[in-house]
Design goal:
homodimer, about 425 residues, alpha/beta, seven-stranded mixed beta sheet, four-stranded parallel beta sheet, 14 helices, about 35% helix
């Protein structure tokens, strides 16, 4: 009799439940006799709050797979260090031992990989034989040592679609509304803001300017860029990452630097609002902004089929690897080199990437930023090589189940 | 030889080009020999900036019909009054006479119907025989004397879809992120904010609270509502209309009451940001916000088929009516009484509404607000009757043309 536990951590993506599906499906196939889901990430272990996922029928699982959010509940709980932390770890070890847990799968981002690593250490130091496997997910695409992260392709597809549509709309109103600023999430990295470049179809179409946290932000430079764009095209469509900051580290639009989340990350999300005010005040033209916020993390109706399939794939691979003896690693996506023999299959969203295994210690709390060679600093844009990297990730659609004109989704577990 | 001019005014909707398509297609059928499009609304007349729409082939027209934004360009230009205005009107009369224009179709909202009325008066007072027909469009749904406005159904479908998805996402994060506020456009009316109620699938699912400009906003009441919702459900998903104001007329989040557009409407769009700050400061819980802004006006990828078909229908009907002698009226949508004999056809997005004709003077500058009986004031929500009104408007899909995973659209004219 073997038992596995799976949990979802951090903020959800549109396809994090596809990973859950992959884990459960493969665990069944591998003959794992008990498949538990912990509700609310690591909190589910601490509270011994489990769902018996093995009992879910195929229809329910298929429906969950098409549902945004984290079906088990996500979490941003940081395991404390010191005496308090050791109480948490004692509790975790107790609960895992009590349920005879042999495999632990943690689906999350770089913060969550740190949690996974700590759970591995907690088990190892207590002599518990638990294989801990991390499974990447994040719309931010900022986990190291993987070609890309499940969740990113779908968010990129949503952002690029919205920017293409909003950009056409905006251009038809330039006589009266000069500047539109759209803000994406992404914390300290610009992968999502950069993805808006896919929207561009020709010289002059949106987006015109993209500001990434990887490049020091200068208000004067920004205003000059926007002004030049207005002179040339009649208006400007700007995309900014929420985490842009000046050379001396000041976050743009961050009114209260003291406001932090449990992992110590600052409160973001006022960059577009702030820059709109700046444009109005300094350039004396009208400006408006859009902020997609969690809509870009949950837009299942525009999920990329490639992303959705890959999300299930990494879940399955994590299970196979654990059963084969793997431990304390994260599954990573590896892009094959050279020309793509399966271009047509890929366009339908079939999985192309292979997988590899990275020690959790190499990904925990590490952050992968946009590489220099993909950023066109002079033009506040990205390079064609970046677009070649991104395009395969947004291919293919996941047809929605519709009722009365709206997509229908599963209830949480 | 007869000539017609069509122009698009105000902010675009996802389906304003479907109306353009309807006008052009019907004008061809009616034998109107010259079909001109004025670029940038009334500005196109003033500048004599025309596109020969009659020369566009069927493929191009079909592609334009699926494209968001205003293919001819929109405008927020208010015809001045006084001597300056009379110069504009002289110029308009001169240009219309020079091109032998017999029919003028103006696609727009309540401000634009005022412009249409003035053009009618300008022509009539100068003895020009030009039939002026207004064609409604607005995501705001705030034009009087029509059951609903083309553009509203598609924006409502997008908002309801995003709120359903983001609501599931948010609920899976309530342990760490308590409050999400999503802001819709809609100026002084709450039709769009109210449309988010379609997202709700069961007691407890999002949205939980909807604040409309039709109801005096109280910060204390709002905080109490949110607090109660957190106690009951663990978190709160709130939708606010950009134009909510207090009993004494103060716009929520409107930092600069002096900032106005050319029609004298105040700068809106900081309600969600402001309320997030309020929740953090007063309830001491985390809060984030989304602001869809022009994405909700341009989301062709989620257009309602019903809306898209109706938008073409009103365009066609305007042409037939003008040719039959109609003048100085706006086409309005009339919902048939009683049970719906074509329920199945309607579910596929076929046009069900009939049309009627309203004098421009009855719609110019008038604003239709949500009726009292559709607002549940005590619960900050809408009534089931409102949902019965709205549901038919979001039915049916318009399949996108896709290339490399993204929708492809026509270039502007």
């Amino acid at each position: 009799m073997s038992t596995c536990v799976v949990a979802q951590a951090g903020g959800p993506t549109a396809v994090i439940n596809s990973t859950l599906y992959g884990v459960v499906d493969e665990a069944k196939r591998a003959g794992i006799s008990k498949i538990l889901g912990a509700r609310g990430g690591i909190r589910g272990i601490l509270k011994e709050d489990f769902v018996d996922l093995g009992r879910l029928d195929q229809n329910t699982l298929a429906r969950i797979r098409r549902t945004p959010g984290a079906a088990l509940g996500g979490c941003r709980y940081k395991l404390p260090s010191g005496p308090e932390g050791s109480r948490d770890f004692d509790r975790i070890a107790y609960v895992l031992a009590k349920h005879n847990v042999r495999y632990f799968f943690y689906v999350g981002g770089n913060d969550s990989m740190d949690t996974a690593l700590k759970i591995h250490e907690c088990c190892a130091s207590r002599g518990l034989d638990v294989s801990v496997i991390g499974i990447p997910k994040t719309v931010d695409n900022d986990i190291c040592h993987t070609d890309h992260c499940p969740g990113y392709g779908s968010a990129a597809k949503y952002i690029a679609t919205c920017v293409r549509e909003a950009g056409i709309h905006a251009a038809s109103m330039y006589d009266d509304e000069k500047v539109v600023i759209l803000e994406t999430v992404g914390r300290n990295t610009g992968w999502l803001a950069a993805s808006s470049a896919l929207a561009k179809t020709r010289e002059g179409s949106a987006p015109h300017l993209i500001y990434l946290p990887e490049v020091d932000f200068s208000e004067d430079r920004f205003l000059a860029d926007v002004d030049r764009c207005i002179s040339r095209l009649g208006g400007a469509f700007v995309v900014v990452a929420e985490g842009i900051k000046t050379k001396d580290g000041r976050l743009i639009g961050n009114a209260d630097p003291e406001l932090k989340d449990p992992f110590g990350h600052p409160q973001l999300g006022e960059a577009a609002s702030y820059l709109c005010g700046l444009v109005r005040a300094r350039l004396k033209v009208s400006a408006r902004y859009a902020k997609l916020d969690i809509c870009q993390q949950s837009a299942m109706h525009l999920a990329s089929r490639t992303d959705w399939e890959e999300a299930a794939h990494v879940g399955r691979q994590a299970v196979s690897h654990a059963v084969a003896g793997g431990n304390c690693v994260m599954v990573s996506l590896r892009r094959p080199e050279g020309p793509d023999p399966k271009r047509d299959a890929r366009a339908r969203g079939e999985v192309r990437c292979g997988v590899g295994w990275v020690p959790l210690s190499l990904v925990a709390n590490m952050e992968r930023r946009m590489p220099d060679e993909w950023i066109d600093r002079s033009a506040a844009f990205v390079t064609p090589d970046f677009l070649s990297y991104l395009t395969p990730l947004v291919l293919g659609e996941v047809p929605a189940l519709l009722e009365s004109g709206l997509p229908v989704y599963a209830d949480p577990l």
